[in-house]
Write a structure and sequence with these properties.
This protein is of the alpha/beta class and about 280 residues long. It contains 9 helices and 12 strands. It has 2 domains: about 220 residues, 3-Layer(aba) Sandwich (Rossmann fold); about 40 residues.
Length: about 280
């Protein structure tokens, strides 16, 4: 079983709308895979089919060597799902809720430890309705990982997080992955995909249009570099170059040493992503 997830020719329509239109996808064991795509591209539909929460119209799907459409309780216990807004049970405390969820699984993690990992120890005795948006999201994550899943689905996990909470969350994801959890996440944050994912898949119009390592998406590492510098009269000049090293050497000779205001940049993941979905549309 090489792949944790494989889908071939996956299709799902809602009336006239082909939400997923022949999608092929493979996620390796131990991988962090990020699914990117504009609103309405078919990410949620795809992920819900993989999770066993939505019926497909066609195609082959294997998730942890089972067809999610015929999922049993044993398979469900191996798959963690972080949904938005699971952790809103008005009258329960954080600790009670995580313990309650832990009881559904055959080999759960220690609830207090899970609460600590998501940074909610100080809120363990607080009722869930009093949590901030970011704290509720952390609780959603705690509920998704307390069963010690082999495969974890995260749907836009850091929406509403402050920058520090995002960095802490990324660290948590890396730790889970290092401990062996395969992770599939959807996100609209390109920096998040770049920071976490081994590979990203771009979905547009219900199809996967490219899969690559973040640094290689859209032949990004071969794209021309933009070199800019400041001239002696103070204006900024820039040039695109396929051979930026040669250009920098030439500039260094021209300035006889340090080049004022030198920057060398390549297209960002966001640049190539926007170009890609523009072309797909
Ligand atoms: P977003 O980034 O906005 O969450 P997405 O990539 O997750 O978007 P989906 O939610 O999978 O996209 O939607 C794909 C298409 O299917 C959209 O055109 C959407 O309007 C349509 N769609 C999704 N769910 C339903 C539904 N239950 N009934 C009818 N149409 C739906």
């Amino acid at each position: 079983m090489e792949f944790a997830i494989s889908a071939h020719g996956l299709r799902k329509s809602y009336g006239d709308i082909a939400a997923v239109a022949g999608l092929d996808l493979e996620v390796r064991h131990g991988e962090v895979f990020a699914l990117l795509g504009p609103n309405g591209a078919g990410k949620t539909t795809t992920v819900e089919i993989l999770e066993g929460y939505r019926k497909r119209d066609g195609g082959e799907v294997r998730v942890l060597d089972h067809d999610p459409a015929a999922a049993n309780a044993e398979w469900r216990a191996r798959v963690g799902i972080v949904l938005q807004g699971t952790g809103e049970f008005e009258e329960l405390t954080v600790g009670e809720l995580v313990r309650h969820f832990a009881a559904f699984y055959p080999k759960p993690d220690d609830p207090d430890e899970v609460i600590a990992r998501v940074g909610l120890t100080g809120k363990a005795k607080a009722r869930t309705h009093g949590l901030s948006g970011g704290q509720k999201r952390r609780l959603d994550v705690a509920l998704g990982i307390v069963g010690r899943p082999e495969l974890l689905f995260l749907d836009e996990p850091t929406t509403g997080f402050d920058p520090e909470a995002r960095r802490e969350f990324w660290q948590l994801i890396r730790e889970l992955n290092t401990a062996g959890t395969t992770i599939m996440l959807t996100t609209h944050y390109l920096d998040e995909a770049e920071a976490l994912a081994h590979r990203v898949g771009v979905i547009a119009g219900g199809r996967l249009v490219e899969v690559a390592e973040p640094s290689r998406l859209g032949h990004r590492e071969q794209a021309p570099a933009t070199v800019s510098w400041r001239t002696p009269d103070g204006t900024v000049e820039s040039a695109e170059s396929d051979t930026p090293t040669a250009l920098v050497a030439e500039l260094a000779a021209r300035f006889d040493g340090e080049i004022p205001g030198l920057t060398v940049t390549r297209p960002t993941l966001e640049d190539v992503y926007l170009r890609m979905i523009g072309a797909a549309a």
